Amino acid sequence: MTTLDYSDVPLGPNEIRLVSLEISAEDVAQAKWKIRVANLADESTSYYAVSYRWGAPLLEGRFKTMTNEPVSPVQFNNSVVKVTENLYDFLDQVKSDEQLKEKEFWIDAICINQSDPKERSHQVSTMMARIYRSATCVIAWLGDADLHTERAFDHLSKLAESTTLPPPVGTKRSSTNQSDSVDFDSYQSSWKSTAKLFERTYWNRSWIIQELVLPDKVTVRCGKYSADWSVLSKASHNISTSTWREFFFNEATGIGSLGSDAKTARIPQRNYGIPTILKATKASMATEHWTNVLLYTLIRSRDFEATNWEDKVYALMGLIEDSVDIGKTPLLRPEFGEDSSAAQTYLKTAIQLLRDCEELLILSCVEGRSFQKVKINGDTLPSWVPDWSEHARLGLGVTGYKRYSADACFVPPGTHLLREEKLARWPAVVNEESLTVSIGGLKVDEISFRAEPKRDIQKGEPFPRLLSMLLSLPTRYQTTEEDLWEAFWRTLIVNTGSENLQEGDTVWVVPRSRWVVRMFMDSWTVERF
């Protein structure tokens, strides 16, 4: 077994390597693949970039034994090189597909010399975003197909075409113009297959954010089945904004009647909304300052995964590299090899965002020290630096909320402050030597009581302080003298309704409020048992 000699295909400025099928064969191992150099500055350069996971695409069946290690032999430029099993499966599909076999591909594991830290650093930090942005098409490879795949793609296509989704049997219609209710049994297997597609490990990668947001065209492929990215995006949106969302949570993912493992079933609950999250990210790139794009995406992708913890930040840098004033951000530059450090990356990110953001939203992302994994000089990170390696979402995870401003009372009505004026008004002064932050502000109130952290409750730990607080609540909300239920439902909608809770409204509000509590308790029970 030989290694690929990259000296035969050296890279110059703006250049990348592309791989294509040269001589086909029945077995991928016997087929011959060609690698050549192409220049991104050349308008005639056309290629498909592949977005995929190195390891197992699904943690069950034949996929369960797959690893990140290259074990499958393939011939490239007269050299036999081992690739991962998941990539081997993709090459097998290319060989078998009449359209794909004529294309050239950019695949990181092959087209970047992974044993050369300097080349890898340059390609990832300087070229990666451009590679995906310039691709004719990006293929989101979910792995080889299984018995659920065909049904899942068919169902997603139907969901994408539906402007008004009928609710399942036993639920109320979400609007008066919806069609008649459909039989749950006829859709049960389709929804289960859809959940299985979103259970694939591809959706957990931090790198897919830029890989799917930057290109103009994306095709999602699982084995021989494929769909345009717009299909998944529309289907995700329709699930999120219809009565199917609750159904998907309780039935299709297996927590309800389908009887799947509860913890595994929560994976597609998270993943089905990823296309919608990426759509919001792309929209924010067109309207928001780069600091907001970076911070909002860090918040939205908190529970994504990266082999190297610093990649939780580096994987997003391609989203902001073309910003007008990005030259003012010398702290945020990807580093690899010995210079790479998650602690330093998170520290630099926090400093840059505190200096350049118009708000202090980043401070709401800081977890308790007991949850931190990353150390700096043997100690936990400073109390103002989020540890992005921690997957647990904190608080509401709200991004882009503009309706409330804590310092609005200090600005005359109708006054529009420039971004520089806002930064100067309440500056965050960072002392990089002592690792402290000084921020001006006004004392509004004092915290008189605290319950257990949400993470402890989700892990199944006892929560006597929270129960004590709930049991001690008065029947009326002390600040406004409202009924406690009214104060509760107003809290759920951030007090955006002007009407009082009418007697007829309790038919909807009270059960819905209790549903929120029940969902919380179900989550607690599942995590514990």
Automatic annotation (TrEMBL):
Highest rank taxon of the organism: Eukaryota
Residues annotated as transmembrane: none
Stretches assigned to the Heterokaryon incompatibility domain: 47-211
InterPro entries in UniProt: HET, HetReg/Transcr_Mod
Protein name (Swiss-Prot/TrEMBL): Heterokaryon incompatibility domain-containing protein
Organism: Clonostachys byssicola
